[in-house]
Amino acid sequence: MDARHDIARELARRYGTLTTEQIQSMAELLTPVQAKKGTIVLREGEVCRHIYYVERGMVRQYYRKNGKEVTEHIGTEGGIIMCIESLFREIPSQLAVETLEPSLLYAIPYEAFSQLCQTAFAFCQIQLAILQEALIVSQHKADTLRFENAKERYLRTLQDHPDILRRAPLHIVASYLQITPETLSRVRAIVSNEH
Q1: Handedness of CA 189, 191, 193, 195 (dihedral sign)
Q2: pLDDT tens per residue across span 130-174
Q3: I want to staple 48 with a disulfide (CB 3.0 to 4.6 A). Which of 14, 83, 152, 191 is the partner?
Protein backbone atom coordinates (compact mmCIF):
# COMPACT_ATOMS: atom_id res chain seq x y z
CA MET A 1 0.00 0.00 0.00
CA ASP A 2 1.13 3.55 -0.72
CA ALA A 3 2.98 5.12 2.23
CA ARG A 4 1.04 8.35 1.65
CA HIS A 5 -2.15 6.43 2.43
CA ASP A 6 -0.64 5.28 5.75
CA ILE A 7 0.33 8.85 6.65
CA ALA A 8 -3.15 10.15 5.75
CA ARG A 9 -4.70 7.45 7.93
CA GLU A 10 -2.34 8.40 10.79
CA LEU A 11 -3.26 12.10 10.46
CA ALA A 12 -6.95 11.17 10.48
CA ARG A 13 -6.46 8.96 13.55
CA ARG A 14 -4.61 11.70 15.46
CA TYR A 15 -6.63 14.73 14.45
CA GLY A 16 -10.14 13.63 13.50
CA THR A 17 -12.16 11.07 11.58
CA LEU A 18 -12.18 10.52 7.82
CA THR A 19 -13.95 8.02 5.61
CA THR A 20 -11.94 5.67 3.41
CA GLU A 21 -12.58 7.96 0.42
CA GLN A 22 -11.53 11.04 2.41
CA ILE A 23 -8.33 9.31 3.52
CA GLN A 24 -7.59 8.68 -0.15
CA SER A 25 -8.20 12.36 -0.97
CA MET A 26 -5.88 13.37 1.86
CA ALA A 27 -3.23 10.90 0.70
CA GLU A 28 -3.27 12.45 -2.78
CA LEU A 29 -2.24 15.80 -1.25
CA LEU A 30 0.85 14.45 0.47
CA THR A 31 4.24 14.92 -1.16
CA PRO A 32 7.17 12.93 0.26
CA VAL A 33 10.32 14.98 0.89
CA GLN A 34 13.42 12.84 1.40
CA ALA A 35 16.16 15.06 2.83
CA LYS A 36 19.76 14.53 3.89
CA LYS A 37 21.04 15.91 7.18
CA GLY A 38 21.55 19.66 6.92
CA THR A 39 18.99 20.20 4.14
CA ILE A 40 17.25 23.56 4.26
CA VAL A 41 13.59 22.70 3.65
CA LEU A 42 12.43 26.33 3.90
CA ARG A 43 14.76 29.31 3.67
CA GLU A 44 14.33 32.52 5.61
CA GLY A 45 12.57 34.93 3.25
CA GLU A 46 10.61 32.25 1.41
CA VAL A 47 6.85 31.97 1.85
CA CYS A 48 5.82 28.85 3.77
CA ARG A 49 3.20 27.04 1.69
CA HIS A 50 3.23 23.62 3.36
CA ILE A 51 2.54 21.92 6.64
CA TYR A 52 5.22 19.26 7.14
CA TYR A 53 4.62 15.96 8.87
CA VAL A 54 7.83 14.31 10.13
CA GLU A 55 7.67 10.62 9.32
CA ARG A 56 11.33 9.94 10.10
CA GLY A 57 14.20 12.09 11.32
CA MET A 58 14.58 15.39 13.13
CA VAL A 59 13.84 18.89 11.85
CA ARG A 60 14.30 22.30 13.41
CA GLN A 61 12.88 25.77 12.86
CA TYR A 62 15.30 28.56 13.58
CA TYR A 63 15.90 32.26 13.08
CA ARG A 64 18.92 34.51 13.15
CA LYS A 65 19.41 37.08 15.89
CA ASN A 66 22.54 39.15 16.41
CA GLY A 67 24.44 36.89 14.01
CA LYS A 68 23.47 33.69 15.82
CA GLU A 69 20.98 30.97 14.99
CA VAL A 70 18.23 30.52 17.58
CA THR A 71 16.30 27.25 17.44
CA GLU A 72 12.59 27.91 17.87
CA HIS A 73 11.18 24.40 17.51
CA ILE A 74 12.39 20.84 16.95
CA GLY A 75 10.16 18.18 15.43
CA THR A 76 10.76 14.45 15.45
CA GLU A 77 8.75 11.44 14.28
CA GLY A 78 5.04 12.24 14.25
CA GLY A 79 5.68 15.96 14.67
CA ILE A 80 4.32 18.83 12.62
CA ILE A 81 6.46 21.71 11.35
CA MET A 82 5.20 24.93 9.76
CA CYS A 83 5.91 28.63 9.87
CA ILE A 84 2.49 29.79 11.02
CA GLU A 85 2.58 33.51 10.23
CA SER A 86 4.11 32.99 6.80
CA LEU A 87 1.63 30.20 6.03
CA PHE A 88 -1.46 32.19 7.03
CA ARG A 89 -0.48 35.62 5.74
CA GLU A 90 1.48 34.44 2.69
CA ILE A 91 4.46 36.61 3.64
CA PRO A 92 8.19 35.78 3.66
CA SER A 93 9.11 33.64 6.64
CA GLN A 94 11.46 34.96 9.29
CA LEU A 95 12.16 31.33 10.17
CA ALA A 96 14.10 28.67 8.32
CA VAL A 97 13.49 24.90 8.49
CA GLU A 98 16.46 22.50 8.44
CA THR A 99 16.88 18.76 8.86
CA LEU A 100 19.15 17.72 11.74
CA GLU A 101 19.19 14.08 10.60
CA PRO A 102 18.41 12.30 7.35
CA SER A 103 14.64 12.78 7.28
CA LEU A 104 11.48 11.81 5.49
CA LEU A 105 8.83 14.51 5.60
CA TYR A 106 5.41 14.65 4.01
CA ALA A 107 4.48 18.10 2.72
CA ILE A 108 0.81 19.05 2.87
CA PRO A 109 0.15 22.04 0.57
CA TYR A 110 -1.86 24.45 2.67
CA GLU A 111 -3.85 25.92 -0.22
CA ALA A 112 -4.90 22.51 -1.53
CA PHE A 113 -5.70 21.36 2.01
CA SER A 114 -7.90 24.45 2.47
CA GLN A 115 -9.68 23.65 -0.81
CA LEU A 116 -10.25 20.11 0.44
CA CYS A 117 -11.88 21.65 3.52
CA GLN A 118 -14.54 23.08 1.20
CA THR A 119 -15.60 19.55 0.30
CA ALA A 120 -16.20 18.12 3.79
CA PHE A 121 -16.30 19.43 7.34
CA ALA A 122 -14.15 16.48 8.48
CA PHE A 123 -11.15 18.01 6.68
CA CYS A 124 -11.80 21.34 8.43
CA GLN A 125 -11.74 19.56 11.78
CA ILE A 126 -8.38 17.95 10.99
CA GLN A 127 -6.89 21.19 9.72
CA LEU A 128 -8.11 23.04 12.80
CA ALA A 129 -6.76 20.35 15.16
CA ILE A 130 -3.32 20.50 13.47
CA LEU A 131 -3.25 24.29 13.71
CA GLN A 132 -4.45 24.25 17.33
CA GLU A 133 -1.71 21.81 18.26
CA ALA A 134 0.92 24.01 16.59
CA LEU A 135 -0.33 27.10 18.42
CA ILE A 136 -0.39 25.29 21.77
CA VAL A 137 3.18 24.05 21.24
CA SER A 138 4.25 27.61 20.38
CA GLN A 139 2.50 29.06 23.44
CA HIS A 140 3.99 26.36 25.67
CA LYS A 141 7.50 27.17 24.40
CA ALA A 142 6.96 30.91 24.99
CA ASP A 143 5.69 30.26 28.52
CA THR A 144 8.64 28.00 29.27
CA LEU A 145 11.07 30.72 28.22
CA ARG A 146 9.19 33.34 30.22
CA PHE A 147 8.65 31.46 33.46
CA GLU A 148 11.32 28.75 33.81
CA ASN A 149 15.02 28.96 34.52
CA ALA A 150 17.64 27.01 32.55
CA LYS A 151 17.50 23.92 34.78
CA GLU A 152 13.70 23.82 34.70
CA ARG A 153 13.69 24.12 30.88
CA TYR A 154 16.22 21.30 30.64
CA LEU A 155 14.20 19.06 32.99
CA ARG A 156 10.96 19.81 31.11
CA THR A 157 12.62 18.86 27.81
CA LEU A 158 14.08 15.75 29.43
CA GLN A 159 10.56 14.79 30.55
CA ASP A 160 8.57 15.83 27.45
CA HIS A 161 11.10 15.36 24.62
CA PRO A 162 14.03 13.18 25.74
CA ASP A 163 14.71 12.28 22.10
CA ILE A 164 15.73 15.90 21.43
CA LEU A 165 18.35 15.73 24.19
CA ARG A 166 19.61 12.35 22.93
CA ARG A 167 19.71 13.10 19.23
CA ALA A 168 20.24 16.82 18.60
CA PRO A 169 23.75 18.32 18.66
CA LEU A 170 24.51 20.05 21.97
CA HIS A 171 24.80 23.53 20.44
CA ILE A 172 21.31 23.06 18.92
CA VAL A 173 19.91 21.87 22.29
CA ALA A 174 21.46 24.93 23.98
CA SER A 175 19.94 27.19 21.32
CA TYR A 176 16.55 25.47 21.71
CA LEU A 177 16.67 26.03 25.50
CA GLN A 178 17.99 29.56 24.85
CA ILE A 179 21.04 29.09 27.03
CA THR A 180 24.75 28.98 26.23
CA PRO A 181 26.47 25.65 25.60
CA GLU A 182 28.46 26.28 28.81
CA THR A 183 25.26 26.72 30.83
CA LEU A 184 23.87 23.55 29.25
CA SER A 185 26.97 21.62 30.33
CA ARG A 186 26.62 22.95 33.90
CA VAL A 187 22.90 22.12 34.03
CA ARG A 188 23.50 18.61 32.68
CA ALA A 189 26.20 18.03 35.31
CA ILE A 190 23.89 19.26 38.12
CA VAL A 191 20.99 17.08 36.93
CA SER A 192 23.29 14.08 36.49
CA ASN A 193 24.65 14.48 40.04
CA GLU A 194 21.13 14.73 41.47
CA HIS A 195 20.06 11.40 39.98
Answers
A1: negative
A2: 999 999 999 999 999 999 999 999 999 999 999 999 999 999 999
A3: 83
